[in-house]
């Protein structure tokens, strides 16, 4: 397992990561080698089984890049499997209430801060080869990242309360689901959605917490950083789509030489 100083680096400057949604360890490793600060393996919208997920974590970490797992839901069994596989953190979708944030933090941490079940055998503990088990427990809790996603009107309304929970490292704003929740599925960049995102980032910052958000291009990234976000995610799928469209539009204009 690769231990990570991502939490410390987030206090120093913005960190830029990339979602990987395809169930491919090789693609994950390739993306990590591009120079991203972290990789977020998307098991909410992706279709990874546990063996593939662990190999994707391994692919990212073999490139020296920490890996975050976006879990399918806020459930202890998903959190346990991701962390036992050696992930450096978890990103949990659709977290709306104070109790839901507390449940995520509690499921992710070893006692005395949580209820995560402990075993020496998984990859996270070097398959029982980690020399000092008590040191492992301490270090795992210290370096763990817990990242709830704020992506509904309900979550925004409860954000003041959610920000009081200890053990959360980043509050990540999901712009697309938030837009749908606000009634702007047809226009995720509607001014009212952007105003809501900016407001959330401001609230998170004022409480001394780290704000995160998705950004699909350079301009959106600049805007997010100017608002105060430090944990920025883009995605490989969008980049591949944009490049393919540009390439095909250009090459199809080329006349063949006969």
Q: What brief labels describe this structure?
A:
258 residues, alpha/beta, eight-stranded parallel beta barrel, 12 helices, 45% helix, globular
Mind explaining what this structure looks like?
It contains twelve helices and eight strands. It is α/β, with parallel strands linked by helices. An eight-stranded parallel β-barrel has the order 1-2-3-4-5-6-7-8, surrounded by seven helices.
Main beta-sheet strand count, sense and barrel state: 8 strands, parallel, barrel
Shape: globular
* Helical residue percent band: 40-55%
Overall radius of gyration: 19 Å
The low-confidence parts are none
| Strand and helix order | HEHEHEHEHHEHHEHHEHEH
Q: Total number of β-strand segments?
A: 8
Strand content: 15-25%
Distance between the termini: 57 Å
Largest sheet, spatial ordering of strands: 1-2-3-4-5-6-7-8
| Average predicted local confidence, pLDDT | 96
Structural class: alpha/beta
Short description:
Helices cover 45% and strands 15% of the residues. It has 258 residues and is α/β, with parallel strands linked by helices.
Chain-wise SSE layout:
Elements: H1 6-10, E1 15-20, H2 25-33, E2 38-42, H3 50-62, E3 67-70, H4 76-84, E4 89-92, H5 98-108, H6 133-143, E5 145-150, H7 153-157, H8 159-162, E6 170-173, H9 175-182, H10 191-206, E7 210-214, H11 218-227, E8 231-235, H12 236-251
Parallel strand pairs: 1-2, 1-8, 2-3, 3-4, 4-5, 5-6, 6-7, 7-8
């Amino acid at each position: 397992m690769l231990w990570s100083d991502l939490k410390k680096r987030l206090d120093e400057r913005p960190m830029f990561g990339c979602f990987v949604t395809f169930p491919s360890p090789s693609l994950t490793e390739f993306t990590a080698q591009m120079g991203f600060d972290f990789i977020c393996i998307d098991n909410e919208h992706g279709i990874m089984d546990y063996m593939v997920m662990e190999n994707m974590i391994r692919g990212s970490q073999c490139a020296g890049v920490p890996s975050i797992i976006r879990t399918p839901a806020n459930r202890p069994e998903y959190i346990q499997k991701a962390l036992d596989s050696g992930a450096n953190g978890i990103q949990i979708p659709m977290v709306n209430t104070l109790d839901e944030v507390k449940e995520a933090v509690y499921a992710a941490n070893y006692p005395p801060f949580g209820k995560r079940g402990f075993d020496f055998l998984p990859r996270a503990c070097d398959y029982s080869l980690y020399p000092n088990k008590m040191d492992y427990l301490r270090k795992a809790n210290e370096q763990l990242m817990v990242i709830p996603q704020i992506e509904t009107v309900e979550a925004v309304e409860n954000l003041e309360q959610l920000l009081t929970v200890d053990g959360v490292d980043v509050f990540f704003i999901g712009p697309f689901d938030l837009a749908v929740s606000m009634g702007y599925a047809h226009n995720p960049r509607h001014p009212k959605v952007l105003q809501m995102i900016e407001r959330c980032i401001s609230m998170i910052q004022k409480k001394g917490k780290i704000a995160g958000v998705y950004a699909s291009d350079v301009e959106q990234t600049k805007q997010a950083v100017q608002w105060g976000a430090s944990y920025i995610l883009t995605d490989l799928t969008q980049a591949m789509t944009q490049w393919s469209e540009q390439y095909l539009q250009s090459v199809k204009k080329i006349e063949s030489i006969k």
